[in-house]
Amino acid sequence: MKVDLTPIDAPSIKSRPVYAPLEARPGKLHVIVADCAGADAVTDMLAKANNRSEILGSAHVMYCPGPTGTDLSAKLEGLGAAQFFRAPTIPALLPRLVRVLSDAHMGTQFYLAGTESLIGQAEREIMGTGFPFASIQKEHRGSTLRRVQCVHCKGITENVATDPFKCSHCGLNLFVRDHYSRRMAAFQGVNIDAEDPGQVPESVVRFK
Amino acid sequence: MSLDFKFAPDDFGGFFRDETFRDTFTYRNSDPRRFPFPFDRDDYMYSVNMEPHVPGRKGTAFEHTFDVDEHYVAEMIDRAKVLAEDPLRCQSLPHMTLAGWDTLELIMETKARDYPQWFSLTKDGNRWHWVNRPLGIEQSFTFLDESTLPYPPFEYIMRQTQGDWTLQDERDGTLWMDAGIATSQADWSVDFDVGMNFMEWHAPVPLAHEKGVFERALKFLLKLQHGAPVRRFNWTMTVNPLLDTAPETYPKWGPTKTTITQENMGKKQHLRVELQSLYRLPRSNAIAFDIRCYLCSFEQIAEVPKWARRLHRVIRDLPVELATYKGFIRNRDAMVEWLSKYDDGTPTSPGWFPDD
Description:
The structure holds two protein chains of two kinds.
Chain A: E1 29-35, H1 38-48, H2 52-57, E2 59-64, H3 73-77, E3 83-86, H4 90-103, E4 108-114, H5 116-128, E5 136-140, E6 146-150, E7 156-160, E8 162-163, E9 165-166, E10 173-181, E11 186-191, E12 204-205
Chain B: E1 51-52, H1 72-85, E2 90-92, H2 97-114, E3 119-124, E4 127-132, E5 137-142, H3 153-158, E6 164-171, E7 174-181, H4 190-193, E8 196-197, H5 198-201, H6 213-222, E9 230-239, H7 250-253, H8 265-268, E10 269-280, E11 287-297, H9 298-301, H10 305-317, H11 320-325, H12 332-340
Antiparallel strand pairs in B: 1-9, 2-7, 3-4, 4-5, 6-7, 6-11, 7-8, 9-10, 10-11
């Protein structure tokens, strides 16, 4: 029972969550959560749906502008969903999602679209209630700014654009590891100058 | 309630060493020949290298299912210190309690069978009585009733068990790391990884994904049967006999990599071996993964001529990517220089074990 696997001979990193375009599915309730350019993913999905009016008739749409100011709320508000809510930020949106989840039954479809931060945090709330993984669709659109947990102090820095960056909690210089936790809804940040304090490579903008 | 150890170094004929894995670093192996040297040939290639975890040669780390060695008590004291400093190192999602009981049962039954002089377990239906003599613990409890133990079952038994452990729930055709403890880990975070599936927690490993390594490993593990555990090796390098090389504390221990010289190499540089074993659990159908860490200083490896020659060749010829991924590229050349003094070029015999 010996399994010999292929040797490793070059560095590479398999990274992030995989996202696919949203598609309309039959359901009793359609919970649509979006931010930033995620509004376009929602309208694209509805444009292709053959049960568009059925979905909108039982849809609860929650939206907030993106971290760089992109605000497409008018586009979603104009869809005529059964319920529409615009929040100013993700933290302001989540309590409403939690309340909706407390009444949601099996057969609910979830559509998450926009930044990884929004997708991750909404997914965490939904999974916490025990909804099956398969009922949650995710499409990444718009800003690629990252939400990063400092592995050292555990504080989360929102909207990280550069790599490396300074942890907004403990101040350590962190590089953004391509390692993502759905439970944290965050990527991992690791001290870059631990072995040579002060020798920090120049920051480059990797996420916009 | 808590778990107070009552340990006297002179007990059990002084078998359990009174030693430290921090500050004074008094850890050492009384007999390096007992160390599970991981290289069965003069070069190293990455592989899954699974084999049945069956009892092996007497007097080695493979003699019993769970190797309780001279470091047992000191490791448990070190673990208690790490958990006191950072309770996030032991986590179990709510649905994993049954798997925790399964693990507790596996460890208690196996240790009581293999080491009757140190551990005993008596059962009267679900009323169990556990005695752990090395740690001075005696506990009556009701199996499957959490309220009768001072900690949840997983943490309770982990505070008495060497090795880092993770418990994998099986659903949706994959494995989910939904419980774990890590106080002797090679740089991975339980707190970050708990809740991830098999592909997610392996994401940072270079290249293996693209070559289909993890798909095959997962397929293999999903077929794991109760009562037929498997094992494999992994290894890396650690400066000082530091068990707890956690990413959380990397800013504290990372700088020690810069302190290695030809003069202190023998004492400070340690080969770190993980003897990993996997067990299917009977009630929860979860898989328990034991990552048991062994440390041996270069100086002590050099006491076994075959190992010293072989380690020199393995480290010298290791692909640069692997030395980088394992975190010792900075000291690789210095290691090779130090080890070369013990390599006269004579051939080595096949297999892990020393020649004498």
